Amino acid sequence: MSRIGKKPIVYNPKVKVATGDGVINIEGPNGKVSQKFKKEIRVTVDDQGKKIVVERVNESRLARALHGTTRALIANMVLGVTEGFQRALDIIGVGYGAKVQGKKLEIQIGFCHPVVVDIPEGIKVELPQPTKVIIKGANKQMVGEFAAQIRRFRPPEPYKGKGIRYEDEKVIRKAGKAFGAGAT
């Protein structure tokens, strides 16, 4: 039995949960999210106890594999609609920066033109400083994927550390060429 899968997911009264046809829909103060689940998994909602229980229909290998995964995904959905998820990016480099224009994020990262990215539905982008981008949303996967998409435009390079990095990312710096070493 999956240790994670057998734990019930408790949610607060602000959250609305509905299941049907292999789909679970969760709505809360921060938005709404939905997730499909396989027929090997049964999701039951207890509205009086305010909890969601994930069970296996049979003991097949696929059902055992999906049990804990499905429970973790649903728990992240509940957490996302109540508290939300966020990912912060730092833009490091002279002349580098970003700005939000409507539903587009414009990033200057050393190219001859600014990189313009459409902000997906359900994602909010905040810029406390031009070199700090905070991505917020109810869907953990969408927040992480959008942050990774932005980082991919100019990942941090190891010599000067310029580029776009996650706020908590450590970039291992390399030493450049040392002039005069061994020159006789």
List the SSEs and their pairings.
Layout (H helix, E strand, L loop, with lengths): L8 E2 L5 E5 L2 E6 L2 E6 L4 E6 L4 E6 L4 H22 L2 E8 L4 E5 L2 E5 L6 E4 L4 E7 L2 E6 L2 H14 L9 E4 L18
Antiparallel strand pairs: 1-6, 2-3, 3-4, 5-6, 7-12, 7-13, 8-9, 9-10, 11-12
The first-to-last residue Cα distance is 70 Å
CATH superfamily of the largest domain: Ribosomal protein L6
Structure annotation, total helices: 2
Strand order of the largest sheet: 11-12-7-13
- How many domains, in number, for the residues? 2
* CATH fold-level name of the largest domain: Outer Surface Protein A, domain 3
Give the C-level CATH assignment of the largest domain. Alpha Beta
What would you call the structural class? alpha+beta
Uncertain regions spanning at least 5 consecutive residues: none
> Based on the structure given, which CATH architecture of the largest domain is correct?
Alpha-Beta Complex
Q: SSE string, helix = H, strand = E? A: EEEEEEHEEEEEEHE
- Please tell me what the overall shape is: elongated
By DSSP, the count of extended strands is 13
Overall residue-averaged pLDDT value: 92
- Oligomeric nature of the chains: single chain
